[in-house]
Amino acid sequence: MELKITCIPGDGIGPEIVAEAKKVLDKAGEVYGFTPVYTDILMGGTSIDACGVPLTDEAIETARSAQAVLMGSIGGDTTKSPWYKLPPNLRPEAGLLKIRKALNLFANLRPAYLYKELADACPLRKEISDKGFDIMIMRELTGGLYFGERKTVEENGVRKAIDTLVYNENEIRRIAIKGFEIARKRKKKVTSVDKANVLDSSRLWRAVVEEVAKDYPDVTLEHMLVDNCAMQLVKDPAQFDVILTENMFGDILSDEASMVTGSIGMLSSASLNDTKFGLYEPSHGSAPDIAGLGIANPIATILSAAMMLRYSFDLDQAAGAIEAAVQQVLKDGYRTVDIYSEGCQKVGCVQMGDLIAERIQ
Ligand code: NAD
């Protein structure tokens, strides 16, 4: 079976970490009987340098014709790079917004998983981190407060700013369906997070999620207010499986959840549309400060590739094998510099990719 994958190596450490993810995917393909076929496109700073824009229409069409997109990261040093002297719509990040919009990627998935081997990096108290956690935050990405009408006016000499938070039931239903489907591949629990004690949009959110839940009797649904969820994430993160929430709440909660893992180089992410198509990328940026030094941690990108196998190709076993190989490498004591602790063996980006690929069974 061939897997048609568009790759966006991008800027900074992007090309280094994508190369390692491809290596690991190729090895998983040998073991599990599939062949990834990659087509690279330019996006971000590299595209600005080559084509004058952060993403060309041809590149979008190439991405659209694939089954999934695997991305490194884009952007440069925002204080020094000439890319940031350009108008906002021509800067590297505009490419990312454009591709998300063009491919209708409305569901953002960010796992927060605590590896036992990296528990020292977790800022929570030991009795909490000892229980471990494995959370999937599903955030609505194209609606809500960030996309509603906004304006700033002056009334009687007083400035006033207005943002509007709008969701229709279809936008809520499609992300809720994604949330329940993903929970079915995990521990079968959805915590839907809202502010239904105050906001109408949250009351509609809760009602529609309840309706969708009827089609998933095997998945447990609970509702939680966003302020309580923010507290529970640091008090008892082990209680969560899938957290399903709207755009702004998800923006804040996903950052909180990822920070309690303590290791930015380990965090993968996915953005999905209503087919099996998805864009998979690490949660971190292009780390221009370490680009070209060969020391970047490729694990977040490798875990993003595992998510791609699971959610775009339903290759759950191969995805699990990559995740197990990452766990084994950590258990064997190998660390890139960002997750290094005393007594471990320090390795570079390429070596980390090799070690993970070797352990895929
Ligand atoms: P960053 O995540 O790139 O780096 C923050 C710190 O973490 C740096 O010290 C970096 O060296 C380190 N780091 C990040 N990833 C690492 C890895 N895999 N291995 C080892 N160390 C790692 O954030 P930043 O410095 O704020 O942003 C740099 C650029 O990345 C900016 O242009 C920003 O806009 C862009 N960015 C892009 C994306 C994306 O492509 N989706 C996301 C976030 C930031």
Secondary structure layout:
Layout: E1 2-10, H1 14-32, E2 35-40, H2 45-51, H3 57-64, E3 68-73, H4 92-102, E4 107-113, H5 126-129, E5 134-140, E6 150-155, E7 158-163, H6 169-184, E8 189-194, H7 200-213, E9 220-225, H8 226-235, E10 242-245, H9 247-261, E11 268-272, E12 278-282, H10 299-311, H11 316-331, E13 334-335, E14 345-346, H12 349-358
Parallel strand pairs: 1-2, 1-3, 3-12, 5-10, 8-9, 8-10, 13-14
Antiparallel strand pairs: 4-5, 4-11, 6-7, 11-12
Helix pairs in contact: 1-10, 1-11, 1-12, 6-7, 8-9, 10-11, 11-12
Written overview of the protein:
By secondary structure, the protein is an alpha/beta fold. Helices cover 40% and strands 21% of the residues. The protein has helices at 14-32, 45-51, 57-64, 92-102, 126-129, 169-184, 200-213, 226-235, 247-261, 299-311, 316-331, 349-358, and strands at 2-10, 35-40, 68-73, 107-113, 134-140, 150-155, 158-163, 189-194, 220-225, 242-245, 268-272, 278-282, 334-335, 345-346. The strands form three sheets. Strands 2-1-3-12-11-4-5-10-8-9 form a ten-stranded mixed beta sheet, sandwiched between helices. Strands 6-7 form a two-stranded antiparallel ribbon. The chain is globular and about 60 Å long. The mean pLDDT is 96. It binds nicotinamide-adenine-dinucleotide. Residues 13, 73-76, 78, 93, 96, 264-265, 281, 284-290, 296-297, 300, 338 line the site of nicotinamide-adenine-dinucleotide.
